[in-house]
């Protein structure tokens, strides 16, 4: 029998998780499904609560990480853990803060079952952040596209058949950014979904963290970025020699951006990806 698994990375969002589990339970109950929950606890400083029993959630399994690694690495570890199970399943990834639209999960699961050769992702039609953050997020997507030719308008929220684990984890891309790993390694199906307000508290994604996230997303395509950047610089050098002084600033920006990508690769050592299950605390 095919299993349904929900994978949720978590750092201290236990209160939100309890509310979210109730929402998930109601959604799958309406479709006469049952599921297991896999929470990847990213070394939270707040202790895990005692969970209630849910009618359509069979089991809640918590993987405790030895150190705080960030949500992307937590997801990567969770996926490697599930791959080790070698069992047919439909995996759905959600953030534990409740910002992903739970009302879409049964549609996404159905699409993942129908198109098991694709990863079904949620493209964000509306966001709840302030105007300045939305502008920065747009520029993040635009810069990513310019240097990678990939318009990545989705995040972690996705559903897919377990056979896709081989593609997602075929290289160390997921260690940097799940969305880039999917964009690089998989065929994609898209479903529109609104980005909801956090269930409790405020978003942990600061402006600086958005910059780091943007660099990790693009770093997956670092070598493509080098090729495209070489083309851009060649064009800009010709413009500069023709008297267009502004092109020099673009050349400097492109050069610095690519340096930052390789610095990002260095500090997100892909070698750790291959031994990432060692980060899980033994029970």
Present the secondary structure layout.
Blueprint: E1 3-10, H1 14-30, E2 35-41, E3 57-64, H2 71-85, E4 89-93, H3 105-114, E5 118-124, H4 131-148, E6 154-161, H5 165-168, H6 173-176, H7 178-185, E7 187-193, H8 207-219, H9 222-241, H10 246-267, H11 271-274
Parallel strand pairs: 1-2, 1-4, 2-3, 5-7
Antiparallel strand pairs: 4-6, 5-6
| CATH fold description of one domain | Spore Coat Polysaccharide Biosynthesis Protein SpsA, Chain A
Helix/strand structural class: alpha/beta
Q: Based on the structure given, which CATH architecture of one domain is correct? A: Alpha-Beta Complex
Silhouette: elongated
Following the backbone from N to C, one meets helices and strands in this order, namely EHEEHEHEHEHHHEHHHH
Give the name of the CATH superfamily of one domain. Answer: Spore Coat Polysaccharide Biosynthesis Protein SpsA, Chain A
Helix proportion: 40-55%
| Strand percent estimate | 15-25%
Number of strands: 7
Give the uncertain stretches in residue-range form: none
**In whole angstroms, how far apart are the ends?**
28 Å
Total count of helical runs of at least 4 residues: 11
Question: Strand arrangement, largest sheet?
Answer: 3-2-1-4-6-5-7
In the CATH scheme, the class of one domain would be Alpha Beta
Largest sheet properties:
7 strands, mixed
Gyration radius from CA atoms, angstroms = 20 Å
The average pLDDT score comes to: 91
